[in-house]
Amino acid sequence: MPRQTKLGKGRKKAGYQGRVDFISIDTQRTVRAYEIKVSIQDFRTQAMKSWVGHYNYLVTTDELADKYRDEILAALPDGIGWLTPTQTVRRPKRHALQIDETWLVWLMMRRNAMVVRDSRLQD
Known about the structure:
The protein is of the alpha/beta class. It has helices spanning 6-13, 40-44, 62-75, 101-122; strands spanning 22-25, 31-36, 55-59, 81-83, 88-90. A hairpin with a 5-residue loop joins strand 1 and strand 2.
């Protein structure tokens, strides 16, 4: 059995909820999390949808919104917003943050450092 690292333990303690497609934090420390779905099969999957922010959004194409609006609205948890490139289908409601803020900032800084490192290695 592989030994559990401190990182693995920290994820559970810090309220790690799985991978979010996109996340932002503003100067007022408001966290917005975005789940991006490009097909109805992608939306219907049992894979976890990570609603971890103060405001959470489903992001789809306009075509998905037009064709499957009723199904998606019925399945979308209360308070989750829905955006497309051209419209706000549903506005989100504010939720309690579902991830430790310090952990979130650390994850964002770590990811940024990895991107910078990788870009330097390509040069």
